[in-house]
Write a structure and sequence with these properties.
184 residues, alpha/beta, 6-stranded mixed β-sheet, 6 helices, 30% helix, disordered C terminus, GTPase activity, Small_GTP-bd
């Protein structure tokens, strides 16, 4: 898949409620490890990662970690503009974070480009692997939501690093395969 010279950079924004693991996901995506110090994101954090496509072409990913705290939404939401991809993150052990996805999606639809790639990410899979009683968001529920909105979703664990690289590859592939790659 050949990409025009000017399209060697993708902006990917992480949104979702506070404490769903956006900062940990960003750290895993960029550094391959969890952050040493855990502090809530205030406003927006930014990181970059070089990514090699299957055709060996290098692209630069700008990954924007936004605060999920209500008081910082006015700072966070503008970072949806010009994003090529958006991770909509919730915690599979906290139903309230899933219940907020509709509101987050409404914000995305109002602010982001109409052809942005949106992927729903259910985080904290490690907590339910051996104890399904901790799961508050059932797979069928997420599948219905994703189907209704025509979105891709995955469950991952940033703590154990399960499927984190896979969710990045899936996002980049979806961006590359969409028509948005060829427009600014």
């Amino acid at each position: 898949m050949d990409m025009p010279e000017e399209m060697k950079q993708f902006k990917i924004t992480l949104v979702g409620n506070t404490q769903v693991g956006k900062t940990h996901l960003c750290s895993r995506l960029v550094l391959g490890k969890l952050p040493k110090v855990i502090i809530p994101t205030i406003g927006v954090e930014f990181a970059q990662k070089k990514y090699q496509l299957s055709n060996n072409q290098q692209i630069n990913l700008q990954i924007w970690d936004t605060s999920g705290q209500e008081r910082y939404k006015q700072i966070s939401l503008p970072h949806l503009k010009k994003a090529k991809g958006i991770y909509l993150v919730y915690d599979i052990t906290k139903k309230a974070t899933f219940d907020q996805l509709e509101e987050w999606l409404d914000n995305i639809r109002q602010i982001a480009d109409p052809d942005v790639t949106i992927m729903i990410i259910g985080n904290k899979l490690d907590k339910v692997i051996n104890n399904d009683e901790l799961r508050e968001v059932q797979l069928e529920q997420v599948k219905r939501f994703a189907d209704l909105h025509k979105l891709t979703f995955m469950e991952i664990s940033v703590y154990s690093d399960e499927d984190v690289e896979k969710c990045l590859t899936k996002m980049v592939e979806e961006i590359c395969n969409s028509s948005q790659v060829y427009s600014k």
